[in-house]
UniProtKB/TrEMBL annotation:
Transmembrane segments: none
Superkingdom of origin organism: Bacteria
Gene3D superfamilies documented for this protein: Luciferase-like domain (3.20.20.30)
One GO term of the biological process aspect: alkanesulfonate catabolic process
Keywords assigned: Flavoprotein, FMN, Monooxygenase, Oxidoreductase
InterPro entries: Luciferase-like_dom (IPR011251), Luciferase-like_sf (IPR036661), SsuD_RutA_monooxygenase (IPR050172)
A Pfam family matched in the record: Bac_luciferase
Domain Luciferase-like: 36-341
Protein's UniProt name: Alkanesulfonate monooxygenase
Source organism of this protein record: Streptosporangium carneum
Gene Ontology molecular-function annotations: alkanesulfonate monooxygenase activity
Amino acid sequence: MSVDIYWRIGTHGDQPSLRRRVVSRGEWAPVVEGSLAPGVRDGRRDDYSYVEHMGDVARASEVSGFVGGLLPSFPNTDDPWATAATLARETTTYRFMIAFQPGFLHPVQAARMSASLQRATGGRVVYNVISGGGGPDQLWWGDKVDHDDRYARTSEFLDVLRGVWDGGPFDFEGRFYRVEGAGLPQELTGQPFPEIYFSGSSKAAIDAAGRHADYYLSWLEPFHALAEKFDQVRANSDRTPKFAVRIDVVARETEEEAWDEIRRGWDNIDPTVLRGATGDSIGWQRSQSFVTGAITGHRDLEVTPNVWGGFHLLRGGPAFGLVGSYEQVAERLDELINLGVGAFILAGVPHLEEAYRVGENVLPLLRGHDLRIDSPLLEGTSS
């Protein structure tokens, strides 16, 4: 079984560690003494920009064995399309997984942008299609379409995008889009269509993923819950589905070192944020449902061995990730592969240093799987 492993590139700055939830890398927080990208030298900013730092993360993860990087998209991030175009020259085979919401971009324009990037990069564009989690962030974009209709709109968007990809003319009339005689210019046709990683945990999301996704992408959950979700996707798919999981990782030489890193972050959290949900994201609501009972310490959020549900308290993002020794984290990833997972998006804070750590110490321990490896660091380590 071939397994693709991506890294995450923070498009909104980065923390120096999980020990304190404060941004010190990038212009997304005040640039002061101790900041990086840019830094402060002799009372003045240096010339090391955050775009250059993202390039360092991309190069570090490429050389460490990751096939590409996820470029997230939120109201407080750089634009992932522009970032992919900027970073493409910094790498050679590295793929750029562009996260975007179809509601904020016309599908014909998305096709033209994507085909242009495919031609410029040699086919290194991948889609992370998200339909939005509702709440204030959705309204920030000016989007008032309700939850299930957002997935219906996404489905139409992808129908139109595929329809115009090879040149047209293509006609379409739906609830959200109407085009007549649309198509790409001849010079942009013939490019490989980007792989689609489709996110969402609701029935509407799973139905849409069954029609369009190359990979159904889920946040990490307790493994039994993931297995049940994958079965639902299989039952609603027009073709044999493939699965991917987005996972934050704290991996150290020993389990004790890994949990000590979590403990240090836990000691600095605001206890009032231990519970709560936002928007109408079913995935978020699911993640909160797996933790029951009183929370008196960080290990109370370990729902199964090495699966910890408190990452959202230490940094922005999903709740669940893996904590343990290098061997334990590799074992858990192997278990997920055996559940049918064919791709991962891994992440660690800070992204630059952790790309090297996970790439050099965890990926070589994955056994019995055909990792797509472009890194000289990992050649010959997988079977």
